[in-house]
């Protein structure tokens, strides 16, 4: 459920603000987020596991805007980060470093050092060389690093191959067969403290079963480690819960939690960590765009809009389908359009074969754009990155100004 709805005036609103008004005020393309939706999704997760010790660590990569992070920090959220940049963003947004888990296969010594100084909750380690590096950096600082090992449970998440991460031949994590040995190694290293176990099997999962399969494999390993004298205090199941873009029916956090908690009854002290990104942010945002031209050809109709693949790359990169709806629907016959951007690539499309009734200057909302939208934007074709606003009831906060043209080359130099 989200707070982007058509109101009695027939127009699409974000909470208590008409999207058309935002387009006039801030221009297009424009990312619009809904605070109430972000909060609702976060609470849905938090409440689903309320009966068990847990921490929701929002995956910053999904949408790292300071305004978004700030809204979640105010709820007491933890954060899952993958870089120094994300760590500093969390701090700048008022997040608590003691609730930060650090994922990623390539953490640098500099990143480890800063995270150790800040006292993050856990490093999710993905390989033996990473263990060695972390042990060394912690030793240099006279600190003990809390660690979890990311286990690759080898389960098929049944999702797009680019966002499937829990299979044997993905680059992520430590193979289940090697896990006991690597835990024993970590346990012996003097500047590490083994506290957890984690996995993340993929993104946009639409069924509970792969999560449960992975959890069962991990719990078996928790038992094995206990016998070997290694106590696991938290189990981090990563992110990955899917959302409805079209007609998918992903489980609600409550269904996911019910299935999980039945497996966790025997582990009342084992803290659960989740790293949801998409499930919190995707449907809390839309990308507003304007129709520049309509081009009708013998073979196809094109609606050329002012947003492009540099603003929202998911359709191009993953053949992702996102709903595209008129902000002010007009009466008339619908036609079949490809919605394309102004970039000089055939792959520059936002949606294909959409049945819409359009005229130049019409506003469209690309739905489910709150996750992996702006964060994946680029300046390709020297297009300034667009503005982002956060709607909160009747209020509107500009949470990122539109880039200006001279910002495009502010870090570039002439050769002389
Ligand atoms: N934790 C880890 C370790 C991850 O790698 C990811 C996502 C998450 C959590 C959050 O997953 P979520 O709850 O959002 O599914 N750009 C792609 C998605 C890439 C996801 C990468 N990892 C897309 O636009 O579909």
Automatic annotation (TrEMBL):
Its Enzyme Commission number(s) read: 4.1.1.20
Please list the cofactors this protein needs.
pyridoxal 5'-phosphate
Task: Please name one Pfam family that this protein belongs to.
Answer: Orn_Arg_deC_N
Question: Could you say which residues bind pyridoxal 5'-phosphate here?
Answer: 240, 275-278, 372
Specify the pathway.
Amino-acid biosynthesis; L-lysine biosynthesis via DAP pathway; L-lysine from DL-2,6-diaminopimelate: step 1/1
- Reactions accelerated catalytically: meso-2,6-diaminopimelate + H(+) = L-lysine + CO2
Domain Orn/DAP/Arg decarboxylase 2 N-terminal: from-to ranges: 36-282
**Residue stretches making up the Orn/DAP/Arg decarboxylase 2 C-terminal domain:** 31-370
By its UniProt entry, which InterPro entries does this protein fall under? Ala_racemase/Decarboxylase_C, DAP_deCOOHase_LysA, De-COase2_C, De-COase2_CS, De-COase2_N, De-COase2_pyr-phos_BS, Orn/DAP/Arg_de-COase, PLP-binding_barrel
Task: Describe the function of this protein.
Answer: Specifically catalyzes the decarboxylation of meso-diaminopimelate (meso-DAP) to L-lysine.
Its assembly, as annotated, is: Homodimer.
Name it.
Diaminopimelate decarboxylase
Q: Which organism is it from?
A: Photobacterium piscicola
**What is the gene called?**
lysA
């Amino acid at each position: 459920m989200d707070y982007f709805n058509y109101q009695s005036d027939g127009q699409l609103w974000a909470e208590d603000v008409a999207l058309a008004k935002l387009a006039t005020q801030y221009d297009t393309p424009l990312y619009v987020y809904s605070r109430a939706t972000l909060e609702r999704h976060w609470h849905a997760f938090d409440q689903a596991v309320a009966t068990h010790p847990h921490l929701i660590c929002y995956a910053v990569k999904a949408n790292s805007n300071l305004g978004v992070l700030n809204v979640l920090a105010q709820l007491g959220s933890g954060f899952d980060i993958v870089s120094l940049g994300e760590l500093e963003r969390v701090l700048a947004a008022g997040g608590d470093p003691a609730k930060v888990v650090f994922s990623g296969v390539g953490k640098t010594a500099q990143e480890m050092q800063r995270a150790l100084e800040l006292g993050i909750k856990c490093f999710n380690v993905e390989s033996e060389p990473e263990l060695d590096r972390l042990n060394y950096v912690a030793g240099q600082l006279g600190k003990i690093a809390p660690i979890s090992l990311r286990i690759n449970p080898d389960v098929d998440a049944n999702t797009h191959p680019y966002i499937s991460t829990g299979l044997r031949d993905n680059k992520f994590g430590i193979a289940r067969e090697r896990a006991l040995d690597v835990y024993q190694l970590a346990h012996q290293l003097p500047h590490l403290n083994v506290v957890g176990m984690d996995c993340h099997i993929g993104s946009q999962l639409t069924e509970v079963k792969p999560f449960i399969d992975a959890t069962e494999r991990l719990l078996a390993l928790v038992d094995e480690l206990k016998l070997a004298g290694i106590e696991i205090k938290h189990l981090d199941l990563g992110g990955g819960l899917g959302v409805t873009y079209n007609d998918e029916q992903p489980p609600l956090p409550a269904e996911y939690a019910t299935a999980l908690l039945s497996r966790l009854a025997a582990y009342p002290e084992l803290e659960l960590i989740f790293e949801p990104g998409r499930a919190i942010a995707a449907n809390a945002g839309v990308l507003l765009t304007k129709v520049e031209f309509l081009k009708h050809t013998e073979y196809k109709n094109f609606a050329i809009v002012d947003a492009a693949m540099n603003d929202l790359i998911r359709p191009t990169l993953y053949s992702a389908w996102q709903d595209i709806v008129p902000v002010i629907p007009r009466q008339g016959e619908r036609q079949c359009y490809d919605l394309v951007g102004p970039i000089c690539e055939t792959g520059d499309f936002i949606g294909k074969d959409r049945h819409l009734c359009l005229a130049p200057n019409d506003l469209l909302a690309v739905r489910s754009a709150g996750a992996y939208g702006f964060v994946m934007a680029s300046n390709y074709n020297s297009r300034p990155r667009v503005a982002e606003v956060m709607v909160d009831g009747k209020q509107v906060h500009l949470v990122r100004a539109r880039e200006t043209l001279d910002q495009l080359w502010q870090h570039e130099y002439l050769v002389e």
